[in-house]
Amino acid sequence: MNFKVPRGTQDILPSESWKWQQVESIIREVCDMYRYKEIRTPIFEQTEVFLRTVGDTTDIVTKEMYTFTDRGNRSMTLRPEGTAPVVRSFVENKMFGYPDQPVKLYYQGPMFRYERQQAGRYRQFVQFGVEAIGSADPAIDVEVISLAMEVYKRAGLKDIKLVLNSLGDIESRNAHKNALVAHFTPSIGEFCKDCQSRLEKNPLRILDCKVDHKNPLMATAPSLTDYLNEESKTYFDQVKSYLDDVGIGYELDPNLVRGLDYYNHTAFEIMSTSDGFGAITTLCGGGRYNGLAEELGGPAAPGIGFGMSIERLLLAMDAEGKSFKQESELDVYIVTLDTPAHRKGFKLLNEFRSAGIRADMDYMDRKMKAQMKSADRFNAKLVIVIGEDEVNGNVVQLKNMGDGSQEQVSDENIIETIKEQLK
Ligand code: ATP
Ligand code: MG
């Protein structure tokens, strides 16, 4: 029997996981800078949480959810995205009553979608996202966008662009919806089955179709921009001028509608423009969702957020040839030549670690040469050698791999000497 990782998932091996940790620390630093606090919600939710919010004509709900019935006969779903669970928690925990509004949250963790696997598209992927809930100030839209841009900037990415649209408010969307129905109805027979059902339920979704996106009627479809009412236009103009104020450039795309139903007003994506990047160029998607808290049984609480996957961030870094600096794995590697030396080495090893020195030693009873090679591979800054003489004399040989110097150090002074040399 040959076991394999499930299709669409991946093992993140030690040769890669250190990069994930680097991204995670960037995320923590940037969120801290913007005063966004971490929230951790369960990996599964009642299915209804996603049905009510994500929308029953979206790809996510129609074909991508991992839904199962638990032993109590309840329908549960592995979370396909982070916003609905966070807003569910916001409502359940009455965060709308917190003295400081908006409530600014971030999350990071695995999401699950039953997708066709391809580069940048997995069935389990890790999404980092933020949500600012409780304010309808256009400045907070720009704060959220700028937070995402800052994460990419700190990862070293240069070839990225912000693409922006406004979906307007309900009134604008309804006016646009009627225009879309009129536009597509005569030729709806040319479109896929999904689009045919979207025409009735949510014609805006047609513009996001991945099957029919080349149909000429897509390009000539009525643009939402032309249907924005005064209020929506003003809101959008304010977002744009705040972006100008903070020096974030953008491209307008009137067909940007995003995969989820709950967005209104601001919708945005951050895309990679790097030549090396594959077919999927969206790194991050987000937008405003003013009706979501009410949809989940709470009071009106306008929100804005985004989600980005770490997988695509790392792919974009590869495409741009950017990498994190890999630090030395070890401060000290202890080489021992016989059993008494091994005992002494093991005792020192534990003292070093308690003193905050990153240390390791051989557990395979190998020859000195093989142990030295390990020290090299671990990029150890210092190597300690212990043989019979060192055991008898209560000393060790300390070798500095940086400058090649070597000295004999007494057991009492070894920690102090190591710390001195590591400075
Ligand atoms: P797409 O059009 O690529 O399917 P989407 O509209 O489904 O995207 P969102 O639901 O907005 O995407 O997710 C936000 C972000 O999450 C994406 O920009 C991307 O970084 C990431 N993402 C979404 N689906 C996947 C996936 N299957 N694998 C890896 N990352 C993903
Ligand atoms: Mg998708």
Distance between the termini: 52 Å
**Helix run count:** 15
CATH fold call of the largest domain: BirA Bifunctional Protein, domain 2
Q: What general form does the structure show?
A: elongated
CATH first level of the largest domain: which class?
Alpha Beta
* Bound molecule kinds, no repeats: adenosine-5'-triphosphate, magnesium ion
The name of the CATH architecture of the largest domain is 2-Layer Sandwich
Strand order of the largest sheet: 1-5-6-11-10-9-7-8
Low-pLDDT regions: none
Number of domains: 2
Commentary on this structure:
With 423 residues, this protein is α+β, with helices and mostly antiparallel strands. It has 2 domains: 14-169 and 229-319, Bira Bifunctional Protein, Domain 2 (BirA Bifunctional Protein, domain 2); 332-422, 3-Layer(aba) Sandwich (Rossmann fold), CATH 3.40.50. The chain has 15 helices and 16 strands. The strands form 3 sheets. The chain has an 8-stranded mixed β-sheet with strand order 1-5-6-11-10-9-7-8, sandwiched between helices. The protein has a 5-stranded mixed β-sheet with strand order 13-12-14-15-16, with helices on both faces. Strands 2-4-3 form a 3-stranded antiparallel β-sheet. Helix 1 runs antiparallel to helix 5 and helix 5 runs parallel beside helix 9 (230-245). The protein starts with 13 loop residues before the first helix and ends with a helix. The model has no long low-confidence stretch (mean pLDDT 94). The structure holds adenosine-5'-triphosphate and magnesium ion. Adenosine-5'-triphosphate is lined by residues 81, 113, 115, 120-122, 125, 127, 258-260, 280, 282-285, 307-309, 311-312. InterPro entries: aa-tRNA-synth_II, aa-tRNA-synth_II/BPL/LPL, Anticodon-bd, Anticodon-bd_dom_sf, His-tRNA-ligase, HisRS-like_core, HisRS/HisZ, HisRS_anticodon.
